Amino acid sequence: MLTAKRALGQYSTPLRTVDYMVRKVIEKIRHLKSPKILDPAVGDGVFVERLMASGVNPAFIHAFDIDPDAVQANAHIPNIRHQDFLTVQGGEFDAIIGNPPYKSKRESRYIKENKARLERQFGEIGIRNLYAMFVHHALSNLKEGGTLCFIVQDSFLTNVYYQDFRRFILDHCLIDEIVLAPRKLFHHTDADVRTAIITLTKCTGPENREKRSAHVMTLIDRLQEEDDYFHPPQDKVQKLEQRYFERMEKHNFFINVPVSIIDIILKTPLKLGHVVDGGTGISTGNDAKFLRKPSGIAEEDPDWVPFYKNGGTKDAWFYETPYRIHRDWETPGRQYKDFMTRNAQHYFKEGITCSSMGVEFSASYMPAGCLFGVNANFFSDDREHLFYVLALLNSTLAKYIIRAVFNRTNMVTAGYIKRIPYIEPAPELKTRIADIARTIVASKKANPQFDYRPLQCEIDALIYEIYGVDPADRKLLEQFCGNLYEAV
Ligand SMILES: C[S@@+](CC[C@H](N)C(=O)[O-])C[C@H]1O[C@@H](n2cnc3c(N)ncnc32)[C@H](O)[C@@H]1O
């Protein structure tokens, strides 16, 4: 059951995190005689308390909350107001700090009830999540040159739905810092949410375009502990001009990705989507109704064909799917409006099936005669090319590009995979890599426990060579992919 506080998005921010953010803000407003600072979502008052504990005059601090109980509980704050922040206008604050609510369109009653107004107000970034609207609105209520420091859900970094939001930030701010907060930060509240601390300076107008592009951002990779904010390990810190985010397709905000890898992405004109066909397949709308899971050979019915829907790490290269779907998928499906089909021209063809959900990413060979679900699936009539692409998709380089640059969330759809840069290898190299891929698939077919690691290393090395990945960067890629759960 969601408590009333949870429904409003109330989660208390841990103290060391608050202290780090307070320090960032104080550094930026130190020169001002009487700064105006706002916490627009005060909750239990932790930001205000730590601002005051750091010596900020309480008269400078303003606080809002939509929850009257939160306002009452913080009655000692001089400038506290029961207020919906998203309706405030002309704030003219020097700094805005806090932890706004993270509620998606689906979860938030507030968004549903105020949809028309929010769409008018935030149409340029979309109304997907309250935190993004809070950032947008905070920027409108900041003075030019003012500072925003928020801890927010980190989905905005790479998720395709936040592309307009990222563009908006690039057009209105200097990104001073993005820190990926420790993975377990909100676990004490049972909230499994990945977060980032963003510090932005409002800097608008076309006259400041070059200033924004040339601005050097500090990007700090996922930290282990809160104490690391104050002394982050140097291999996690990257300084980069904002123009890299501007140039990147869909303006992905990547963190601590070597420039050599970014250059590969920016400078390779051909993408995987240009050299293989495919995408999603059948969405049954009701797997329990349309899929079967036979428990043994005796139960197998030749009219029910293997259905591949989402592999995992252990399923890389080849696995037998436990699911079956009727080969005459069309007849029963036609009666159900939620049963949807795409790419039917590829049904029953030999291909590649990718995982879509989960921290890991992997690709598996899919034999002819199968059907496939809403994960990504790729096809080519050229068998050598197909096996080469399978090797490429299972390479550390591709995994890194997908999980560190294109999509830090756990949902990898065909659209992201198709953006992998594609370099055609020399013919003999391609044959060699495709042969190794064939060997791994055949060996895993014969023995699902087959240890393919030595062959995988060989493929990784050859793919690095094709893409010209610097040996010094290879280690970073391997570290990231070897510990994806903590890294993303
Ligand atoms: C994640 S909590 C943050 C609490 C506190 N700042 C902290 O970090 O511990 C978000 C707060 O935003 C408040 N809130 C939600 N929607 C709001 C709105 N439209 N205007 C102002 N406050 C809002 C909730 O009541 C809640 O107290």
CATH structural architecture of the largest domain = 3-Layer(aba) Sandwich
Q: Low-confidence spans: pLDDT under 50, at least 5 residues?
A: none
Number of E-state strands: 19
- Tell me the name of the CATH class of the largest domain: Alpha Beta
Instruction: Estimate the helix proportion, in percent.
Output: 25-40%
Mean pLDDT: 93
Query: CATH H-level name of the largest domain... which superfamily?
Result: Vaccinia Virus protein VP39
Assembly type of the chains comes to single chain
Shape descriptor:
globular
- Helix count equals 21
**Structural domain count:** 2
| Beta-strand content estimate | 15-25%
Sheet/helix structural class: alpha/beta
- Rg from C-alpha positions? 25 Å
Distance between the termini: 29 Å
**Bound ions, cofactors and other small molecules, one mention each:** S-adenosylmethionine
Catalytic activity: a 2'-deoxyadenosine in DNA + S-adenosyl-L-methionine = an N(6)-methyl-2'-deoxyadenosine in DNA + S-adenosyl-L-homocysteine + H(+)
Protein name: site-specific DNA-methyltransferase (adenine-specific)
EC number: 2.1.1.72
Keywords: Methyltransferase, S-adenosyl-L-methionine, Transferase
